[in-house]
């Protein structure tokens, strides 16, 4: 409803993504998933294997995302205040257009 573009931190905030992983980790992600031991011992839980790999890559990606602004997150109290109504008619006039 805001028409704003979002980046990775905003996508996580909005529930559209689970993790922020820098794009330069793509090849490492694919390699680690390929090399993972699937179905052996402690690695029998596929979700756990994927989460471990993603968690590690997310941690190494933190510097990339630490500098990014998250405008939707920063303005979420105002967005909630403006949009938290029971009907379109209750929105302020500029928002109804």
TrEMBL record:
Gene3D superfamilies, sorted: 2-enoyl-CoA Hydratase, Chain A, domain 1 (3.90.226.10)
Stretches assigned to the Enoyl-CoA hydratase/isomerase domain: 1-92
**Pfam families reported for this sequence:** ECH_2
- InterPro entries recorded: ECH_dom
* Name of the protein in its database record: Enoyl-CoA hydratase/isomerase domain-containing protein
Question: What is the protein's species of origin?
Answer: Vreelandella olivaria
Organism classification, top ranks? Answer: Bacteria, Pseudomonadati, Pseudomonadota, Gammaproteobacteria, Oceanospirillales
């Amino acid at each position: 409803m805001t028409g704003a573009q979002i980046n990775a931190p905003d996508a996580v905030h909005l529930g559209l993504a689970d993790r922020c992983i820098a794009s330069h980790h793509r090849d490492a992600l694919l390699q680690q998933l390929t090399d993972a031991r699937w179905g052996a011992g402690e690695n029998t839980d596929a979700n756990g294997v994927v989460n471990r790999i993603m968690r590690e890559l997310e941690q190494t990606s933190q510097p990339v995302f630490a500098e990014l602004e998250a405008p939707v997150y920063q303005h979420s109290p105002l967005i909630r205040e403006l949009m938290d109504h029971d009907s379109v008619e209750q929105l302020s006039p500029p928002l109804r257009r």
